[in-house]
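Table 4 source record.
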Amino acid sequence: MTASLDGRELILGVTGSIAAYKAVYLLRDLTRRGARVSVCLSEHAREFVGPLTFRTLSGRPVLTELFDPQSDAAVEHVALAERAAAVVVAPATANLLAKAAHGIADDFLTTVLLAARCPVVVAPAMDGGMWLHPAVAANVAALRARGVTVLEPDTGALASGLSARGRLPEVDVIVEAVLGALTPARDLAGERVLVTAGPTREPIDPVRYISNRSSGRMGYALAAAATRRGAEVTLVSGPTALTPPPAATFVPVQTAEEMREAVLQHAGRASVVIKAAAVADYRVRRAADQKLKGKQDFTLELTPNPDILAEVAARAGDAFIVGFAAETTDVVANARAKLTAKGIDLLVANDVSRRDIGFDAEDNEVLLIDRWGGSRALPRMPKAAVADAILDALLALRAAHPARKAVR
């Protein structure tokens, strides 16, 4: 059984950091995934982002005062903590870390933290010098020793104008940590999963290339979900703007040929191969060594790229192979034809002619087709949820068909 945020009660604590505005985006992501979020603002957090913003997005009263006579929820801090599936504090200041480490409960948020018996995820944000201070390091160590998930801050430009470690982790990293804390079983432990993601770029000349609209989100979501569920993951990715899951082995590539080489290098030891990348079907036969000049017409001679999915399936051994089909017409018929032609176990098809799903979108709506004749349509949902559903499906299929290689 995998982690899900659908219907889960979460508490989002926000403290007085310049990064407090990012908690708005975190709240939006959590609610999009179906979580029911109660936001708790520290006194100083309200100096950066007002309660109205969080109330509007959460649809719930924002908790600020421990004993607010105008709030029915304010005196229910213990009951609220007991109902919560998880508490996430983002951003967490050095002051919050110190209070939590030493059991100080002098406001609503710190009282909730002391009362909570559910998983707690803390995402620090502070100046780099503060993060490296021995007192902060000791507080972080104490919290981690108690089972609190304290994320590592990112490195980059800080409010002080310096560049150092201290930035709030990205929203997707925080969400993955929450999902990981809620995962009841690591059902992919011992598996070696190879995932491909993103587009490829086929050069025309040193400054131009042929590519496609793939953002890489689906492949990255699969890699993140597989690591969260205990797998050893290798992510081979074309160029994207995404951050790879920290626990995955990341292999960046540019062209289809580079992706093929990387995939074949790592596929031999994989127990699961998931080919989510949108590999260019063609490349320029002879790319120019110098930038093409002028506005005159010219002709590009294209040649097919290697069929990485079919090649991996032919060499798969005992690995379970998952492919993707991005279609614009006759989705079911084209997907079934591709499943048979490639000789794979499971195919994930989606209609990329729709602007609300697929390429460049945060959501997806897909059809799962397996080579034993089964099919299952997944409704529109965030790609992180689709990723877990795909992993659930492949585990179920592999358990139901242990002798699948005999019929490949």
